[in-house]
Amino acid sequence: MKIVPLIADGKENLWNDCSDHSAFFGEVGAPLPPVEHLEHIRQRGGEKLAAFDRDQIVGWTGVIPSPDSDDAELAGIEVHRDYRRQGIATTLLSSAITWASTRGSRRLNFQTSPLFTANTMLYMRGFNASYSWNGNNWADPERTVPWPTVDCSIEFADTAYRSSIMQGSDLRSQSVLTWTRFEPEIRRHIGLSGPTFEVMHFPELDLPRVFTELREGNTGLCSTTARVFADLAANHYQFRAFESVGNGFYAYVFQRAET
Ligand SMILES: CC(C)(COP(=O)(O)OP(=O)(O)OC[C@H]1O[C@@H](n2cnc3c(N)ncnc32)[C@H](O)[C@@H]1OP(=O)(O)O)[C@@H](O)C(=O)NCCC(=O)NCCS
Q: Whose C-alpha lies nearest to ligand 1, atom 27?
């Protein structure tokens, strides 16, 4: 596998002339179609790093440095669905960090959904990303279903995940949620006099699964989880860790900030 900086190497045609981007540009939730997305990055002095398996694009990430701070924006990352779990996103994200740090950036900022468990494994566990709740997005144009979103930051000086003080499958029994298939229910409410740590566990989720659930009327997947994330934030609980708890489940651990 080879990583190519498409803009610096003058190889934008390898992206733009691609007849079908859907296998590696279908789940990223980018605000622009693929060709316009590359142009958007180019105009802002950024780079699109593409991973190739021979002449096939198997993944990419975008990175845009900020003109007036030492932040950079991660402008999307996606790996071809047939090439996942081979370390390609890890290599792309490491390359984006190297690219941005040689241009004076110290951190990558971006947004994602905390529902996407593979993403959190990559960002939080792979690169020690910090998550903070951003409750301002919607799953539908009518703005009836909230879309759980977090602001993420990866500090280049601190990318080593430190294991949680709470680990293991007992996290599941401490979760504020229970799940029936992909439908969550709130087991108990969050309060200011609650414990130091709170736990929210999730089945494995990605964008196609969440959209399928929404289409089938399971809006609680977004609205119930958004409500719990918002309650946790309102009660000063911060994202602290993300653990695999077995049987295809994952758990966020939150710690209440000293006030
Ligand atoms: C998230 C995504 C980019 C990860 O790509 P990838 O190349 O499969 O990731 P890697 O192989 O580098 O995985 C790195 C680590 O992340 C975790 N991870 C990745 N996919 C996972 C999955 N499906 N389930 C659990 N953990 C996963 C693992 O810890 C993995 O390390 P391991 O394989 O050694 O255990 C890919 O799933 C994807 O393209 N998703 C759709 C697009 C998207 O959501 N983009 C981000 C928008 S914010």
A: 118
Please give the distance, rounded to the nearest whole angstrom, from the Cα atom of residue 204 to the centre of ligand 1.
12
Quick one: which of 169, 109, 163 has its CA closest to 134? 109
CA-closest candidate to residue 57, choices 100, 112, 110, 19:
19
Q: What's the pLDDT at 162? A: 83
- The predicted pLDDT at position 50 comes to 98
For the chain, the average pLDDT equals: 95
Cα of 246 to ligand 1 centre, how many Å? 17
CA geometry: angle at 170 spanning 219 and 210, to 5°? 20
Q: What percent of the chain has pLDDT over 90?
A: 90
Domains, the chain, with CATH or none: 2-105 (3.40.630.30), 170-256 (no CATH)
Ligand 1 centre distance from Cα of residue 112 (Å): 13
Is 96 close to ligand 1, i.e. is its CB under 6 Å away? no
Say whether pLDDT at 2 is over 80. yes
90 lines ligand 1 (CB under 6 A): yes
Is 169 a residue whose pLDDT tops 80? Answer: no
Task: Tell me which residue has its CA closest to atom 4 in ligand 1.
Answer: 89
**Does the beta carbon of 173 lie inside 6 Å of ligand 1?**
no
Is the pTM of the predicted complex or chain greater than 0.85?
yes
End-to-end CA gap in the chain: 48
* Pocket perturbation via mutation, ligand 1, pick of 28, 57, 73, 79 by most ligand atoms within 8 A of CB: 79
Which of 115-124, 188-197, 202-211 has the lowest average pLDDT?
188-197
d(CA 84, CA 59): 9
